[in-house]
TrEMBL record:
Organism per entry: Actinocatenispora thailandica
Protein name (record): DNA-3-methyladenine glycosylase 2 family protein
GO molecular function: catalytic activity
A Gene Ontology BP annotation from the UniProt entry: DNA repair
Family matches, as InterPro entries: DNA_glycosylase
Organism placement in taxonomy: Bacteria, Bacillati, Actinomycetota, Actinomycetes, Micromonosporales
Length: 316
């Protein structure tokens, strides 16, 4: 479908914020590789409108240009978009790029941590980039269970290519991950084309139908333990999957499954072998997720490899 420019605006971000850091993080975010175009200091990406009709919009996010923290936003659509749809697009971009995240508490703790100071310098102004939607992030983390990250990402992209809406902007076709109204219409035979086995298909169906009617505002703001428990009640969602959704989809950094090897590996890279991950967790408290995100992102940009979670994840 062809498109036209529907809306332009400027979105604020909580300072410190540097869009260049977000673009670099996006370029290195393997689960979403190839799903957006980063060029000339801006990024274009498709989003599926949350409507029964499968429709995509494409957003272009660039520098704000007025010296204030934030970004410029252009929204392209295949039809005239209603005001509520434009406000929805603004909220989606704000959440996707973590523009409203207040990093000052984390940065204050990190400033007293000598080992992480070089990391802070490498990623100054970074806010956490998230999955573009709850549907996409939840599906991805179910697909990672007992599956390598590369394979899970490939299956997620195949699912989007088969069932996601698309829009052409500037001669380039952008495909969005399908929204819940589309996903809930898919049965086990259709979803099974993108999973590793029947059990994973069952878990994917369970997550889709449980979250399709969820109050995303409640998920993002209710007490952490209540939301985590609600996610854990979904069939097939264990500690890792629930915690990953909390951090990388909902942007909630309060906790991590710190027993996973990739977090111990990051701690060892920063503080030396034998470092207790529990000591790191005690230092950073409710900012532990941002410690992990900042550290892994900066180490990657410095060419220092860290472990990914490719071991089996135990489901509930």
């Amino acid at each position: 479908m062809s498109s036209s420019l529907q809306h332009t605006t400027k979105l604020p971000a909580v300072s410190p914020f540097d869009l260049r850091q977000s673009l670099r993080a996006l370029s290195g975010f393997a689960p979403c590789a190839g799903e957006q175009v980063v060029a000339d200091g801006a990024v274009r990406k498709a989003f599926a409108l949350p409507t029964p009709a499968a429709e995509a919009i494409v957003v272009e996010v660039g520098p704000r240009g007025d010296g204030r923290a934030g970004v410029s936003l252009a929204v392209f659509g295949g039809r005239a978009l209603a005001d509520d749809e434009l406000r929805w697009a603004e909220r989606r971009v704000t959440d996707w790029l973590g523009l409203a995240d207040d990093m000052t508490g984390f940065l204050a703790v990190a400033a007293d941590d000598p080992a992480i100071r070089p990391v802070l310098a490498e990623v100054a102004g970074l806010h956490q980039v998230r999955f573009a939607s709850l549907a996409e992030g939840a599906c991805y983390f179910v697909l990672t269970q007992r599956t390598a990250q590369r394979v899970a990402g490939l299956r997620k992209r195949r699912l989007a290519a088969a069932h996601g809406p698309s829009l052409t902007v500037g001669g380039q076709r952008f495909v969005a991950f399908p929204a819940f109204p589309t996903l809930t219409g898919l049965g086990p035979d259709q979803l099974g084309r993108f999973t590793g086995n029947a059990r994973q298909t069952d878990y994917l169906l369970a997550a889709i139908h449980a979250l399709a009617g969820a109050d995303e505002q409640w998920l993002a703001t209710a007490p952490y333990d209540e939301v985590l428990a609600e996610l854990r009640r979904i069939r097939g969602v264990g500690d890792f999957t629930a915690s990953a959704i909390m951090l990388r989809v909902l942007g909630r950094p309060d906790r991590l499954p710190i027993g996973m090897p990739q977090f111990a590996d990051v701690a060892a890279r920063l503080y030396g072998p034998g470092t207790s991950i529990d000591a790191v967790a005690e230092r950073y408290g409710r900012y532990l997720g941002w410690w992990a995100y900042y550290a892994k992102t900066a180490l990657a940009s410095m060419g220092v490899p860290t472990t990914h979670a490719t071991r089996p994840h135990r489901a509930a």
